[in-house]
Write a structure and sequence with these properties.
Distance between the termini: 45 Å
Largest sheet: 5 strands, mixed
Order of helices and strands: HHHHHHHHHHHHHHHEEHEHEHE
Number of helices: 18
Structural class: alpha+beta
Number of strands: 5
Shape: flat
């Protein structure tokens, strides 16, 4: 309509030209830009930005120039020239993929392990040195100097391995070492000697595990966490001792440890470890939270059982009534009438299934406060965005503060006739993208294991997938947006209604 009006003002010929040629060319250019962006992204996934850094960087720069020119409606020839230069450079990078993966094989593997250890954050300087050496190796590949490329790749691999180990040590032992320094500052080696010695032994054991096998991170991390907690415990005892007569220090420490041991026996029954670093009050709150969660789950199960019993009694009565009607009509109407009634019952059952499904979905949508979760219906799928389910920074450890929300989630999942459930992990865009991807997968796996342990589901009913920062719900430019993007999603596939 706009083109025809414009033609009436200028000329029919010019109007037809604008209607046919310019929009078509613009659409073609827009499609070529999108295709080049996809091609470059595919090249990044193949690590071409490492194998052929100069060619890849020029391809990215020329694509960005073409996008800017297109947005500014510059001459088509300029845009096509930028796209051609981007295409030439990405083709040069792609041509080096095979030889690059041979020459850089060990360095690429070491780089991947360093990213998994979050070396860009925990060992920034060492990571930068390794990446700089890797870039120089890639440039030698571009120049055709395979011998020098191989030599520099070996140096880069060694630097990546060093950065990886440094990051692992910082990640796993850093908190324990900080806790030790704090304990020493309060004279804990003297006033809480027994606890401090145990913490020192744990820290030494963790360091020994890393020396023997840096990839036994789970075992070393567990020991390092125990050491950090023990040092915090010693610090707490030292603080108490400082407030009283120092002549009573040994007796007081033994008394404190005796009381905490009694509380720890209770905590063990709930399946989590007692952390006395901040005193008895936080542990007591954990116990109360666990008890409240169990009581809530028990009450929910009782209510569910009562509802199911009522429904079963009603269905039994309905079934008996139906049988009586069928028996009274069979003699007079015969088999034909019985067949008609059977079809009617099946139609009624389908209607009941639809009504129950609609009622169930209405209840699910109101099961969570808006600040805790968002529920979206998508065909035969129900999607939960759990905003209030939070983890410590960089961790996939489920904390007791999440038990109440997870209990509500379990209750909702029990109500849903799920054919399959997928746990989705999401992060914001802060930090390294590949680390965020791995972290989101670990968090999704942690929720999956929690639900398997607490709901009695089969393993093939419940899967987990991490999307990292790839699927944001809001902008990553604000704290609120990032908080919304850091979430756990639960996607429930419902069985289709027959008919």
């Amino acid at each position: 309509m706009y083109v025809s009006k414009h033609a009436s003002r200028v000329s029919l010929l010019l109007g037809l030209a604008l209607a046919v040629s310019l929009p078509s060319e613009a659409q073609t250019l827009e499609g070529e830009i999108a295709q080049m962006a996809n091609r470059i992204e595919a090249g990044r996934e193949k690590q071409l930005h490492v194998i052929a850094p100069s060619f890849f960087a020029r391809a990215v720069e020329r694509l960005s120039r073409a996008q800017t020119q297109f947005e500014r409606a510059e001459r088509i020839g300029n845009i096509q020239r930028s796209l051609a230069e981007a295409r030439t450079n990405i083709e040069r990078a792609e041509a080096l993929e095979d030889i690059g993966k041979v020459l850089l094989r060990d360095a690429l593997a070491a780089r991947g392990d360093a990213i998994t250890a979050n070396a860009p954050e925990f060992a920034t300087a060492a990571w930068n040195d390794a990446d700089e050496r890797m870039t120089s190796a890639g440039r030698k590949i571009e120049e055709g100097d395979q011998n020098d490329a191989r030599k520099r790749a070996e140096e880069a691999a060694a630097l990546y391995r060093a950065a990886e180990l440094q990051a692992i040590r910082q990640d796993l032992l850093g908190k324990a070492q900080q806790a030790r320094a704090g304990a020493v500052g309060l004279n804990a080696p003297k006033t809480a000697a027994k606890t401090f010695r145990e913490a020192d032994s744990l820290l030494a054991a963790a360091e020994q595990q890393l020396q023997e096998n840096r990839y036994d991170r789970q075992g070393a991390a567990a020991v390092a966490r125990e050491a950090a907690v023990a040092f915090q415990h010693a610090t707490r005892i030292a603080q108490i001792v400082m407030e009283i007569d120092r002549r009573k220090e040994p007796a007081i420490e033994n008394l404190v440890l005796s009381h905490e041991a009694d509380v720890a026996r209770i905590v063990e029954q709930f399946g989590f470890d007692a952390n006395f670093a901040s005193g008895l009050t936080p542990v007591t709150e954990q116990i109360l939270a666990a008890i409240a969660s169990l009581q809530k789950d028990r009450d929910n199960l009782r209510d569910e059982l009562a509802t199911k019993n009522d429904e079963l009694a009603a269905k039994n009565k309905e079934l008996q009534d139906t049988y009586a009607k069928v028996a009274s009509l069979t003699d007079s109407l015969g088999g034909q009438l019985a067949a008609v009634q059977q079809r009617e019952r099946e139609a009624a059952e389908r209607l009941r299934e639809r009504q129950l499904r609609e009622e169930l979905l209405r209840r699910v949508q109101t099961a969570f406060p808006p600040a805790d979760a968002e529920v979206i219906l998508d065909g035969d799928q129900v999607v939960f965005h759990l905003f209030a389910l939070s983890f410590p920074v960089g961790s996939a450890q489920i904390t007791p503060e999440n038990y109440s929300l997870l209990t509500d989630l379990q209750q909702v999942l029990r109500d849903l006739p799920a054919a399959a459930i997928v746990i989705e992990g999401h992060t914001d865009a802060q930090g390294h993208a590949e680390f965020n991807q791995a972290l989101s997968q670990r968090r999704a796996d942690a929720i999956r294991e929690y639900l398997l342990a607490n709901m009695g589901l089969r393993g093939d009913q419940l899967s987990a997938v991490g999307f990292g920062e790839a699927r944001p719900l809001a902008t990553n430019e604000t704290p609120e947006g990032r908080a919304k993007n850091r979430r756990i999603g639960v996607r429930v596939q419902l069985p289709s209604i027959r008919g």
